[in-house]
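User: Hey, my collaborator sent me this sequence without any context and asked if I could get a structure. I don't really work with proteins. Can you help?
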Amino acid sequence: MSNSFFTTWNPSWTGGFSQGNDEDDILEDENAEYQEMQEKGFVLNAIKCARSVLESKIISSENDVVGILLYNTKQTRNVSQFPLIYMFQDMDQPDAQRIMELEKMEKDLENGQLNVTESCEDDQMASYQDLFWICSTIFSQKAHKMGSKRIFLITNEDHPHATNPALQTSALRRAKDLNELGISIELFMFNKANKNFDLNIFYKNVVEEEDIQNAESKFEELMVRIRRKETKKRPLQKILFGLGENFNISLKVFLLFSPARKGNHVYLDSRTNNEVNVMTEYICKDSASNLLPSDIKNYFEYGGEKAIFNKDELLKIKKFGPQTKFLSKGLTLLGFKPKERLKLKYNLKNSYFIYPDDSQVKQSSLFFSHFLDKLEAKGKIAICRYIARDYSKPSIVALLPQKEQFDENGIQIKPPGAHLITLPFADDLRSLPNDSIQKGNLKFLKSISQSRSS
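Assistant: No problem. I've predicted the 3D structure and written it out in structure-token form, which is a compact way to encode the shape of the chain:
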């Protein structure tokens, strides 16, 4: 299940879609410049793009949740009642009714009826800080076990709050807060008729470099990129890699291969056919009263007595590694081994692929690149301790470096990075008594061959 949220502002459109277990925000931006083209053309294309995404999701990703928010509008409607921001559709699963509402908006725009898309006065502008705050609030209210959260920002305004540095600083601070909450902002730029979009003025401090694309000039190009972003290769997790005392770099963990699994079943109300929420309550069998989480205790029987402990004590028991902010989970370097010591039989499960992440720790790409170059030059692999998340059991893993490779056309076929291979513990390796099995098989095969020959 995923969440999506759209926000509009008249000459540009900022948008976000949710995919799988993602959450996304979509923002649209409107200016008084070239008013007729922006209100009737640019926003029309943005709404068409949103409708197209909803139509695809209702078939391929029906559990995704999408919302639409317009900003720099005369009308105001949002959870915080911030001015010049209009919530057109709250986050919800795509359905026929929501698509029909977008189709009606398209027809109104084609007929020159602006309605809720009518932009505010030239000297007015919605606060980006308020806009990002609403996105964060919507995500926190609607989010439920989402894998990733994204804001698709489509705009031709490269210098918001140009005359108000204080608002600009507040917007940048709010964008940083979103990133710390795991909400990424992906920028889709449009050039103005007389001016190219300058990323360095404002947005270079808002979006990650890997997400930056060239400014678009056609709606078809925008639609292609939106489709590409819908199926974003999102990381499984982001972790810290401890290379020494008080020295950590940030990494992204990807799962390159995963078996296709059947989706989980969904409980429906037999009367309305709507999805229902499952709630579990614990009842005391003696008093028949509801039990609170604090009332439930765990115990371990030892020496004929029960050692009772609460939930917090249980979590401490399950937590491995140093109890510090940076090394309680993630990768910790233990040492090095020759590459030939890594056997094929040591693969217990599918390996992971790790790639540096500069969003959490700056210059991680630089240090990780030098680290892999040294491993490759010396023919070594790194041996590390890996704790995937809090309260997960530790694993011993090997980091196998991989160089970037291109085909004859200059297209990348292998990315630079390292494979994270889970190694077996000593009790995972054992010799199977296969002599008797082989002899038994030979006797069986001989008996079959003799019976057939006779």
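In plain terms: Residues 44 and 449 are 77 Å apart (CA to CA). You can pass these tokens on to your collaborator as they are.
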